[in-house]
Model the fold of this input.
Amino acid sequence: MNAYGSLYVHDGATLQATTSTPAKMVGFATAGPSSDLRDGDLSVVPVLASDHIAVKAGGIYRISFFAAISMSAAAIAQIHARFGATELANIAATVEAITAGADKVHHLSSSGFYVPATDGNISLYIETSASVNTTPTAAQLLVERIG
Done:
């Protein structure tokens, strides 16, 4: 049975200080449609308060994200998905901000598959090549159990 869940933000204004050390991306404002609310399937559960989506072991999951971010200074930004503390290298995107400012929005997106051996949480992490403030003006994390 397929299961799904998402987190998103639209017109986001949450400022996050970022560096070359990956940090969980915060600022999601809404838990989108999810199968746990529709039919009680708990294999994919968005947890808005913690900016992650909980998944169960044994499934095949398609993980997708999109983010539009602004940066306070020129830098290279990378966003990648993580399962707990493990970076999912196949689900990552990089953008270089040559110009910066709230009016300069940079887009990143990626998707891929993951098969967790244990129950855990999927979240997005962001890192930048310099110490800058980033703001996700729009973002979505979508997780689908497809098998």
Observations:
- The chain has a mean pLDDT of 92.
- The radius of gyration is 15 Å.
